[in-house]
Amino acid sequence: MSDTTNLLLSVTSQAALQRRKVRELREGFIQILLLLAAISSVLVTLGIMEILIFESIKFFTNPELKEVGVDNIFLDFFNLVNPQWTVLFEEKHFGILTLLSSTLLTSFIALVVAIPIGTTVAIFLSEFAIPSVREALKPILELLAGVPSVVFGYFALNVISPFIRSFNENIPGFNRLSAGIVIGIAIIPIISSIAEDAMRAVPNQMREGSYALGATRLNTAINVVLPAAFSGIVAAYILGVSRAVGETMIVAVAGGLQAIYSWNPLEGAATISAYIVQVSLGDIEFGSLEYESIFAAGLTLAVITLVLNLIGFFLIKKYKETY
Asked: Digits of tens for pLDDT over the chain (323 positions)?
């Protein structure tokens, strides 16, 4: 081998080594950026929880509670017998079940609307729609998720509520049934999109095996695809529930702002998020007992969301299928 050939090989080897070092540096830089993004999201979450917890402690230990006649804030806050939430009145009570009942009721109505429709849409898009129809429908459906919630609120107030009142004029214009129905409409894209992605991830061999045994497409979708995609579908439901529980503008516009303990969906009453909006309008003095109460209410909402996510996590872990 001549000296010229050795020289060329050496230059080529050094160039390859240099390209490898540049590639490794670039990948290391990208990994650091991704790590910082992940850490920042965790820090933001921890920061929010820190604010909620410390401000809630300030509320539960506020000396003004004695002055307004509340001797034991924990008994009043967790009162299950006769809960009252009259924080903005002269005689104050802090029964969180008053707001919690409206939150759970509107969320339940939303799920009754969203889960059947969202799951059906997901099955259609995944198992029955031809590619051109799927490519046309799915972006339109996901566009619905981008509609501002205040628009949904006025849709509930001006369309759904009058429709419900057409059956009985005694039903108030602000009611939790119309708010819950529209929250359900708002979360349909979340459930259908994530559930459809989970169904499409099921291997085609499972479908083909079912067809080979003589099953129809509907039988295959219900008995093969749905069970195989169960963990992903549960994740879609959990995200939908979390959105329904934390929904603010729809319930603030259409559900009413009076804190009433009632399980009647035809009555108007404030949810936890609607109360937080009401106090945050700027009329309440910063640092007052009324102002600090929104952090205790917000912490309750965060705990509910955390519990729902933990339930979803364990369900996904238990029923997750690996192909």
From this structure: 566 777 777 777 788 888 888 899 999 999 999 999 999 999 998 999 999 999 999 999 988 888 888 888 889 999 888 889 988 888 888 999 999 999 999 999 999 999 999 999 999 999 998 888 888 888 888 788 788 888 999 999 999 999 999 998 898 989 999 999 999 999 999 999 999 989 998 999 999 999 999 899 899 999 999 988 988 898 899 889 988 988 888 998 888 888 889 899 999 889 999 898 888 877 778 888 888 999 999 999 999 988 988 888 888 788 777 66
Q: What is the pTM of this model?
A: 0.84
Q: Which amino acid is present at 112?
A: V
HEC-encoded secondary structure of 277-295: HHHCCCCCCCCCHHHHHHH
Measured between alpha carbons, how far is residue 177 from residues 135, 180, 254, 294 in Å? Answer: 33, 5, 9, 25
Which residue, 88, 262, 272, is CA-closest to 175?
Answer: 262
Query: Is the CB of residue 271 less than 8 Å from the CB of residue 41?
Result: no
Under 8 Å between Cβ of 220 and 247? no
Q: What is the 3-state secondary structure (H, E, C) of the chain?
A: CCHHHHHHHHHHHHHHHHHHHHHHHHHHHHHHHHHHHHHHHHHHHHHHHHHHHHHHHHHHCCCHHHHCCCCCHHHHHCCCCCCCECCCCCCCCECCHHHHHHHHHHHHHHHHHHHHHHHHHHHHHHHHCCHHHHHHHHHHHHHHCCCCHHHHHHHHHHHHHHHHHCCCCCCCCCCHHHHHHHHHHHHHHHHHHHHHHHHHCCCHHHHHHHHHCCCCHHHHHHHHHHHHCHHHHHHHHHHHHHHHHHCCHHHHHHCCCCCCCCCCCCCCCCCHHHHHHHHCCCCCCCCCHHHHHHHHHHHHHHHHHHHHHHHHHHHHHHHCCCC
